[in-house]
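Researcher: We plan to redesign the surface later, but first we want a full-length starting point. Tokens attached.
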């Protein structure tokens, strides 16, 4: 199934921008509560603003002609009581919503651990056999099942945020924070780092795919398996190039001896991902080749060097093999 066509909205990579990264299109009860709170705060703020501006205009235009309205009672009611009551109501509503969205999930909740790096996301699931399953820059979530995501970072402060599913939460070095929610609508959403984390902060995004429980379990089982063996000579040549170029020193490909790196994203199933470069490029063989040859041009300052010294046939074979890793 192509999530790019089944989602309610589309992504900036694939066409339209509306909705896929918007707090105005909630896909969980928690996001709906945050949207409701935002609307009430906006309404309350607008009411106070209109009141203050009206009084200011009245004071300028009337001057001393309306002495009764200059009494202490009048000032106390409109200058203190009204804003205090309005802000007090909003504060109580905020506390109620905060308690609601922070309720502990049940024991059957799916638990995921996300680590922020400059500039990509490491994502670890608990696999079908209890062993950790690592992927990167993409989340798959089961529809209707509570999800608990614990986050931290390996370098600077980041912020994990999927506007359509939950509020943002900071990722702090040496500290673990938690966010929980229950996706209720299937489809494709986009997340974004919400804390400035360096020159490529704007290019630190990811995709979240909400799908039925059965499809999620099938996806997780595939992710838990080792990389598939090459089926054509081109893929065999690409795998050989991967090892000869030293890519395995930074990237892991499970099932491939010599590819146990931990610096960069796990590439065991990179061909199944929707994007490259942390949500920045569409996932395709052409973009894979472009990223390998020009990583520093596409995202300057990331830890992967540009392999522009590689000849064309070798580059195409390497990109084709990586794309075959679904």
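Model: Full-length starting sequence:
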């Amino acid at each position: 199934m192509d999530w790019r066509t089944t989602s309610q909205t589309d992504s900036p990579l694939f066409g339209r921008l509306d909705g896929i990264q918007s707090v105005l299109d909630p896909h969980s009860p928690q996001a709906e509560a945050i949207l409701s709170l935002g609307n009430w705060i906006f309404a309350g703020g607008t009411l106070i603003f209109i009141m203050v501006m009206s009084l200011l205009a009245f004071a300028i235009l009337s001057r001393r002609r309306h002495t009764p309205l200059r009494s202490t009672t009048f000032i106390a009611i409109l200058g203190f009581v009204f804003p205090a009551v309005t802000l007090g109501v909003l504060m109580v509503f905020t506390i109620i919503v905060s308690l609601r969205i922070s309720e502990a999930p049940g024991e059957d909740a799916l638990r995921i651990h996300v680590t922020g790096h400059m500039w990509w996301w490491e994502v670890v699931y608990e696999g079908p056999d209890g062993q950790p399953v690592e992927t990167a820059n993409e989340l798959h979530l089961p529809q209707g099942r509570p999800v608990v995501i614990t986050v931290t970072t390996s370098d600077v402060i980041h912020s994990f945020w999927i506007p359509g599913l939950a509020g943002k939460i900071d990722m702090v070095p040496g500290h673990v924070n938690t966010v929980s929610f229950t996706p209720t609508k299937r489809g494709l959403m986009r997340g974004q780092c919400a804390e400035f984390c360096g020159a490529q902060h704007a290019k630190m995004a990811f995709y979240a795919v909400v799908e039925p429980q059965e499809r999620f379990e099938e996806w997780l089982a595939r992710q838990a398996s080792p990389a598939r063996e090459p089926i054509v000579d081109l893929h065999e040549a690409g795998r050989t190039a991967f090892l000869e170029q030293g890519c395995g020193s930074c990237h892991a490909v499970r099932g491939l001896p010599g590819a146990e790196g931990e610096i960069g994203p796990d590439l065991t199933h990179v061909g199944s991902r929707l994007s490259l470069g942390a949500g920045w490029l569409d996932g395709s063989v052409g973009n894979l080749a472009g990223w390998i040859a020009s990583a520093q041009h596409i995202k300057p300052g990331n830890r992967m060097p540009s392999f522009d010294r590689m000849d064309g046939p070798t580059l195409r074979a390497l990109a084709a093999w990586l794309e075959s890793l679904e």
